[in-house]
Amino acid sequence: MYEICPETPADEPEVEGLYDLCFAPGRTALSSYRLRDGVPRVAELCLVLRDAGGTLVAAIRFWPVRVDDHPVLLLGPIAVHPTAQGEGLGGLLMRDSLTRARRMGFDRVLLVGDAPYYSRFGFQRLDDVVMPPPTNPDRVLGLELRPDAWVNVAGPVQRETRPPVDPPAPDPTACTQVDPPKRPADDRTETPRPAPHH
């Protein structure tokens, strides 16, 4: 049994440690971090997954960005501890967080990643959305949380400069208990190769 909960300030050192373990040194110098710098996370969607013993095994974060003045969720980083990869835990976090995002009324999600992996969650290449260089355009992917949410949304991805409207603090009681996935899935792409754009 696993538990998925919103990340709290007490979780942050562990989450940062997990990202440091899973991603290449200098991860914060990647282009996607320029969109996050100084911008508050979407706290309700930043989730941690712990095993029955309370050990952090996976984490996911979301940030607000804009494309052509449309609000967009930027997904990432998502990471699974090396000892737990291949068990489908990244998929559990993806599905749980996207369900929460849809319930909260978000329309569209953007990420930079491997299309063969993320296509299983419904992500597709966005030909007309441009991440800051040197991002590979083939890795710019989007998901619609409502029909046609990406139609006519194009242009460069920009930092969210508008202050959040009374953002609620993450509710630590908004946790879900989940069973281990029945069929193991390959989570290796969630701990990218040396120079990913997360």
From TrEMBL:
Annotated region (Disordered), positions in chain: 156-198
Single Gene Ontology MF annotation: acyltransferase activity, transferring groups other than amino-acyl groups
The keyword Transferase is assigned to this record: yes
Domain of life: Bacteria
Domain N-acetyltransferase: start-end pairs: 2-146
Biased composition (Basic and acidic residues): 180-191
Name of the protein this chain belongs to: N-acetyltransferase
Species for this entry: Paracoccus haeundaensis
